[in-house]
Amino acid sequence: MKNKSSFLPQEGEAHPSRCPDNSAFKQQKLPAWKPQLTIATVLSSFFLTGSFCLSVGVSLILSANSIREIQIDYSDKCSDCSKLRENSSNWNKECHCSVNFTLKEDILGDVFMYYGLQNFYQNHRRYVISRSDAQLLGRNVNIQKSYCAPFTTYRNGTPMAPCGAIANSMFNDTIDLFYNLNSSVIQVPLLKTGNSWWTDKNLKFHNPKSHNLSSAFAGTARPPYWQKAVYLLDEEDERNNGYVNDDLIIWMRVSAFATFRNLYRRVRRIRQFADGLPAGNYTFHISYNFPVTKFKGRKQVILSTVVWSGGNNPFLGIAYVFSGTAATLTGFVITAIHLKLRKKKTHFRK
Amino acid sequence: RFELLEVLSFDSVRRRMSVIVKSSTGDIFLFCKGADSSIFPRVKEGKVDQIRSRVERNAVEGLRTLCVAYKKLTAEEYSNAQKLLQNAKLALQDREKKLAEVYEKIERDFILLGATAVEDRLQEKAADTIEALQKAGIKVWVLTGDKMETAAATCYACKLFRRNTQILELTTKKIEEQSLHDVLFDLSKTVLRHNGSLTRDTFSGLSTDMQDYGLIIDGAALSLIMKPRQDGSSGNYRELFLEICRNCSAVLCCRMAPLQKAQIVKLIKLSKEHPITLAIGDGANDVSMILEAHVGIGIIGKEGRQAARNSDYAIPKFKHLKKMLLVHGHFYYVRISELVQYFFYKNVCFIFPQFLYQFFCGFSQQTLYDTAYLTLYNISFTSLPILLYGLMEQHVSADTLKREPSLYRDVAKNALLRWRAFIYWTFLGVFDAVVFFFGAYFLFENTVVTSNGQMFGNWTFGTLVFTVLVFTVTLKLALDTHYWTWINHFMIWGSLVFYIIFSLLWGGIIWPFLNYQRMYYVFMQMLSSGPAWLGIILLITVSLLPDVLKKVLCRQLWPTATERIQTKHQCLSVEQSTIFMLSQTSSSLSF
């Protein structure tokens, strides 16, 4: 604290100066932009924000009007199947169920088919952590060290492939769509690949390397809730088999909330369905495997189109319109207050 | 020519010192100098009345006076004195007391020689500084060991007392005439009659109709007030005294012993409003008061470094106090209060969405954000901008602060860290967190947000909330910054860019050391979705709008003095600002 040289100049020669430098930084005199909240900037920003939000909101609402969505809950309609599935010893018995619906108008464009679940907490902490990403990368890892427990190995030591609770509880209903054309029934062609993220399918999930798939998974067993082994998930398409199966990949990307939907299939635009789904009667044939009654869950199948602003969700458009109006109204309020105060000031001055 | 035999050193209690010398002719003399109040009682001959009137005249002119007296000692007296001094100096117990007794015995029956007067000029710009501090709402008290006349003259010179200040006296002279009780009551009636029960601090210079009061109290009166009495009325005297002081614009305490200076500082510290006290002094007799006050400032001066050594801050001249308090103090307060409030705000914004998510994940403590984001939020993404704010912010320019001391009142009484301000920031944080979380929730829940129909998972949801969070809190700080140097630009925009680059890198590579790959490509996928972009922009805007609105409305309807100055500079209009501040001030200064 002894600032010697600042007041005794003759001592300055003897001792080095301990004054801070006279630089702009140390003297807090850096050149700076000092913005002020003037009435012009405030008003212009409020009105600009308001108009931007309003325009975006209106365009979102208009684009969302063209989205078509059909949601069908089939947990009630397939009640005998669901009762069958309540008893886990019936696991190898098949159960089929049919749900009809009618399209009054054609659905034009790409049609996506989703399965929806309610009250299924994929976001539970112990569930989310129960996977082995290293195993899914195709590496030879010791899954005992992962967080897959208790779904790691069987009592006889055989490891599960894939391990973990997420993979174990994979959604295994099979949904097919049939179109009633005149008197015949046509199966709607569906695409089962190209539904997961490109990076997931090609970079994050790999099958273990071997000359063929069944030998790659030799020495492993299917998880307890599965009906078939992982290399039998899609025997028609080698590139959709094993860990890189689209359905498995989509299921492994756990959802954020208890009510969610996952992309299941896309309508293949060939033959009668080149423009989408024509109007008429349709039937879903569901092979009911996934039990949901024990935890009071529900299952749906959803057909939907998408636009640039996503799927059928009016929230964003409404929120934008709402904020736009709020900002514009606030702008007017501020203008009114400003004018009233200015009148008062000039009146006062006179 | 004179041989120094003994030195009876100075102490501030008896206020004199003596030396015993032997002249070349063999005579032994005792010379004594000291304050007139301690020399005159011990003088038995000399031109006492003449010198006394001269001393008083000097004091009224503001000169510091000393009296000098002497005594001739016989050899026997000297040897006695020497023995006594020796015993006292070598005493193992109560040395101070024994020495005081010996001094008392030796120093008596003087012959008065005369008096000296020294002009102790005020430091340059002392008057200007004191005026500025008073305009800033700081109560200035002068605590000095000088006589009342000297001190009063000095106070008039440094503009502590103005021409129209009515001086109230609480001195020993008055107390001899009436009892202490009556004097206190009279004074309190006088001050309260004019100002009513509401205390006000006037904008000095503009309020000529408001009566200014100045109080003079001396050390003896103070010790009477502070003395604990057998009945429970001692508290009343102190309370009454403080009540009178609160209504006076300036207080002068003269004839103060160093310990009494500390006593007064303590009294003020413990008074009702618990004001923050600052003590500034330059001599060794100021050390106890510097140590007692909340902030002690020592002036490195001709009287040595004692005060500076014991102080929190040392300055070379008194005038530097003005810039120190009004500019630097003001800046640091604004900076640190914003830093504290902002830290709580950004962490509320950070954690509250995690808390809200628990309602949706079965209360299983699943985190909303990835662990890398959790770790780096407070370290990397949001730390540097506020650090720079705390170092560099200047909400008003330094020249304006020096020119308008009244702006200091805007930050008086810890205004920016009161409960009200804290609750506002917390409420803002909760509001922002609710907007982030529920905005993203309604955007995401059970809907498709991509244009290729694919679904997002929970990590994408969390990353969206986190992105909105980081951008909102950084832009909030950007809106609060008034002084944009190139470093501020670099840090604020750089933090945001760093966040984006980090997210891209973190999610762009399958890091081998990680045992989970849950963030792989999540950030990029989120950015490839149009609704996610629109959602981010909307949520940031909605979070920031209420604060901007509050700022604009408060600026228009209830502007503080600082804001008025800022607008005045903009409009370049010359308007008389007749601002009447009816606030109580609570910081007092004494020197």
TrEMBL record, chain A:
Residues 1-20 are annotated as: Disordered. GO terms for biological process: phospholipid translocation. The chain crosses the membrane at residues 315-339. Pfam families: CDC50. One of its GO terms (cellular component) is plasma membrane. Keywords: Glycoprotein, Membrane, Transmembrane, Transmembrane helix. It is found in: Membrane. The keyword Amino-acid biosynthesis does not apply. Belongs to the CDC50/LEM3 family. This is Cell cycle control protein. It comes from Cariama cristata. The lineage of its organism: Eukaryota, Metazoa, Chordata, Craniata, Vertebrata.
Automatic annotation (TrEMBL), chain B:
The keyword Zinc does not apply. Residues 78-105 form a coiled coil. Its cofactor is Mg(2+). ATP binds at residues 10, 33, 64, 144-146, 255, 261, 285-286. Residues 308-560 form the P-type ATPase C-terminal domain. It catalyses: ATP + H2O + phospholipidSide 1 = ADP + phosphate + phospholipidSide 2. InterPro entries: ATPase_P-typ_cyto_dom_N, ATPase_P-typ_TM_dom_sf, HAD-like_sf, HAD_sf, P-type_ATPase_IV, P_typ_ATPase, P_typ_ATPase_c. Belongs to the cation transport ATPase (P-type) (TC 3.A.3) family. Type IV subfamily. PANTHER family: PHOSPHOLIPID-TRANSPORTING ATPASE IH, PROBABLE PHOSPHOLIPID-TRANSPORTING ATPASE. This is Phospholipid-transporting ATPase. It comes from Cariama cristata.
